[in-house]
Structures are given as structure tokens and as C-alpha cells.
Structure prediction request, 80 residues.
Amino acid sequence: MGALIILLGIVIFVIGGLFFLVAAFRESIWWGLACLFIPIVSLFFLIVHWRVAGKPFLIQLLGFAVLAVGAIISPQTLHR
Prediction:
């Protein structure tokens, strides 16, 4: 069960990331390329263009939260 929740969280996170990139490319091709290849630019884009980038960012946060819940409830194995 935990693995399915983790997988769902990953899917939601990736979808949010794709929406974020689409928002960046809609602003300009330079924003899109910079967000794609320079990680710190994504944070700057989020701050400067919150109106278009906020919703995809929140979707990513939701995906991360779902992933974290799945990781917490999944059974842990100990290897000796």
C-alpha cells in the first residue's frame, strides 16, 4: 500500500513540475530554458511570476506530501 502511495506522490510531483515548465515557457522561451537547465532560476521565476507559477508549485508540494505520507506508512525492513 505504501508503495502505491509513493508512486502516486511521484506522479503528482512530476505533473506539477511539467505544469511549472509550461508556465515558464509561456512567459518566454528564455524563462523556460533557464528553468529547465539552471535550478536556481526556477525559484526566482516562482517569486517573480507567482500568479502563473504558484499553482504548479503547490501541486508539486502536494505530490511531495503524498510521497512523504507513503514513505512514512510503508513497512520498513531491517537488513543485517
Summary: The first helix runs from residue 2 to 27. The radius of gyration is 15 Å. The mean pLDDT is 92. Residues 46 and 53 are 5 Å apart (CA to CA).
